[in-house]
TrEMBL record:
One Pfam family named in its UniProt record: 4HBT
Keywords recorded for this protein, A-Z: Hydrolase
Domain Thioesterase: from-to ranges: 34-117
Protein name: Acyl-CoA thioesterase
Family per record: Belongs to the 4-hydroxybenzoyl-CoA thioesterase family.
Amino acid sequence: MDSSPFDQPYRGGFVGDQHRFALTVYFEDTDTAGIVYYANYLKFMERARSDMLRAVGIDQQAAKTAGEGVYAVAEVGIRYLKPAQLGDDLLVVSTVQQVRAASVTIHQRVMRGTETLADANVTAAFLDPNNRPKRQPRAWVEQFKQISEK
């Protein structure tokens, strides 16, 4: 079978200092009222953060396999402003807010056109294989600083 561009997963990318990740609301994302279930906004944001890390060259799986460590969400502050509905095309906009030795805080907005539907600050801690906070790899800190200074 011949390969097609449609055989490749969707990837977001950067516009200036903002990472943009587009998605569509499917039936499985909604609750009985026909609106996006509140916890699914966190899933949308997770996909966008993971894609952002990949886009800057951070290989989380390789770091985990090598025993370097992994990111884990330590804190989320989220505000739901308007509901998304079945069929809506959404955009998750992510911006690095703060980089510390063992964590990174990312501001994320779920947008429908120009409307902000959910607004969150997510802090991810870098953990060693024993789930204790650990300094992030220096190269990763530099990557975060580069994208936050664009």
